[in-house]
Amino acid sequence: MFASMLLFAIAFITDPTHPDSSAPPRAEVLIVGTFHFNSNSDLVKSANHDVMSDKFQAEVNQVVGRLAKFNPNKIVVEYPANDQVKLDTLYADYKAGNRKLAKSERDQLGARLAKQLGHDRLYAFDQPSDLDFKPLMDNAQKAGRADLLGELQSKTAEITKASAAISAKYTVAEHLAILNHPPIIEEMHSLYIWLLNFDTPENRPAAALLTSWYLRNLNMFENLQRIAKPGDRILVLVGAGHTKHLRDFVGQDSTLTLSETAPLLPNPPLTSMTQATTEQ
């Protein structure tokens, strides 16, 4: 009985939902998963966007206005952490009027909002790594599982089609609301878990691939931890594929508090990515 009570007490003390009143104030973290505004090399492609059009720019400015209500004192973007000096130069040139915003979400949302709020810099936290899908394909072919290859192609094509449909029908703010809706975050993450079907008892390339993906996200989170100081309000702008892991990590850190995007974005017009192509 005593041992059980002791374990409960330890769990309570270390539970991030029961902060120590004498501890420094937590940093508040708002993670906004984004689609890629510009071309990208991800497995699931984003739609092509006319980023510099008047319509898209007006929608971006609307999103920036919404995110400004969070009042972040730091904005973290998906840019290599070891290139912080280069990011500092790019942002300083933009602030000084010597550089126009690029088409990336890093610039269009991050740099634009940082300048509006008078920030001195953007913070880089990415730890890029290559995801090699070739061992999965080779293993499926060796195992005579052409059906898996076809299903992977079908799944990625469906999500790519859904992303294009969402981009065509909804505003940037609505698109972000969809991507940051918790059930859709889980739905998108399930594709990674499905990849384990490519593994066999003798060869596990999917597990190795997912381990590499998990490690990248964990490294990104470690960089975020180093950026975060007590009392900070941190906005993280990152590709939506990273959102699931980063939200989990923040939720498990007793020095951080996870904020939700729902109060800042419109109500998501979809509750599943499949609705994007089935609702006409």
Strand arrangement, major sheet = 3-2-4-1-5
Q: Report the structural category.
A: alpha/beta
- Please work out how many helical segments DSSP would assign: 11
* Gyration radius, rounded: 20 Å
- Portion in helices: 40-55%
Number of beta-strand segments: 5
Query: Outline, from the CA principal axes?
Result: globular
Low-confidence region ranges: none
Q: What's the SSE pattern?
A: HEHEHHEHHHHHEHEH
Percent strand equals 5-15%
Give structural attributes.
5 strands, five-stranded parallel sheet, 11 helices, 280 residues, alpha/beta
Explained architecture:
This protein has 280 residues and is an alpha/beta fold. The chain has one domain (27-278). The protein contains 11 helices and 5 strands. It has a 5-stranded parallel beta sheet, with helices on both faces. Helix 2 crosses helix 4 (105-116) and helix 9 (205-227) packs across helix 10 (243-251). The termini are far apart.
Summary, kept brief:
With 280 residues, this protein is an alpha/beta fold.
Secondary-structure blueprint:
Layout: H1 2-14, E1 27-34, H2 54-68, E2 74-80, H3 84-95, H4 105-116, E3 123-126, H5 134-142, H6 146-169, H7 172-179, H8 182-194, H9 205-227, E4 233-239, H10 243-251, E5 256-259, H11 275-278
Parallel strand pairs: 1-4, 1-5, 2-3, 2-4
Helix pairs in contact: 2-4, 9-10
